[in-house]
Design a protein that fits this description.
Keywords: Plasmid. This protein is mainly α. The chain has one helix at 5-15. The radius of gyration is 7 Å and the shape is elongated. The N and C termini lie far apart (19 Å). The mean pLDDT is 60.
C-alpha cells in the first residue's frame, strides 16, 4: 500500500 493509499484505506475502513 502506498502512503497516498493509506488515507483512502482509512476512509474506507471508517465507512465500514
Amino acid at each position: 500500500m502506498k502512503r497516498q493509499d493509506l488515507p483512502r484505506s482509512r476512509s474506507l475502513r471508517s465507512c465500514e
